[in-house]
Specification:
Layout: E1 2-8, E2 15-20, E3 29-30, E4 33-35, H1 42-54, E5 56-69, E6 72-84, E7 92-98, H2 100-105, H3 112-118
């Protein structure tokens, strides 16, 4: 199943994370994103998912990488905020701007920390 995710950092370098409110991975922290619906481009799906999960409007940038988890093929893109106010919604139980220290402390979805650490600096 094709999915998209967003790597979004604020002006302080913190990473936007959501706490998943439903299975799979309920209660774990992850990049915001979700399934690409039929007829959607990755950009359209990512803008929709971010708006639904975080209340933020974004501009989608370059593809950062792809990861396969089970039958989900996730295409993660860099993005930046263009508007809106951060608030959890849709299937996100919470949303936060996470520091590097938070990434080590929070219970993250499987493989997320390794994926982030493997991204070019």
């Amino acid at each position: 199943m094709r999915c998209v995710g967003a790597i979004i950092r604020d002006t302080e370098g913190r990473l936007l994370l959501i706490q998943r409110g439903h299975p799979p991975s309920e209660g774990l922290w992850s990049l915001p994103g979700g399934r690409v619906e039929e007829g959607e481009t990755d950009d359209d799906a990512l803008r929709r998912e971010i708006r639904e999960e975080t209340g933020l409007e974004i501009q989608v940038g370059a593809l950062a990488g792809t990861i396969v988890i089970g039958f989900y093929e996730i295409f993660d893109y860099h993005a930046h905020v263009t508007g809106g106010d951060l608030r959890p919604g849709d299937d996100a139980a919470a949303a936060t701007w996470a520091t590097t220290d938070d990434l080590v402390r929070l219970p993250l979805t499987k493989g997320l920390l390794d994926f982030l650490n493997d991204l070019p600096r």
